[in-house]
Amino acid sequence: MKLRDWLLARGILQSEFAIVVQITRSHLSSIVTGARKPGKKTAINIEKATKGEVTFDDLFSGKAGGYTGKRKSATAINRLSKYDNEQMTACSQVFSLL
Q: Which of 43, 45, 78, 85 could form a disulfide with 38 if both were Cys (CB 3.0 to 4.6 A apart)?
């Protein structure tokens, strides 16, 4: 599955997902649009964060496609509830600083 499609289907912003996979939003944007390929560690983090729905192979097979959707932070945090508690805590801490 393309990362763009995965994010859209869940209503997750790139900035929110970037926190989960521990990269900058601009780096994630470059990966989503296909302008850059992720490093090995980032690709593994993306595959883990998506529970294997976006695979290492998906990330290296052509363009991922752009994503520019917008959602309120609280809604996106609720959608991220399936992630590990540790990752959710990190997201919540970041949003509390905004």
A: 43
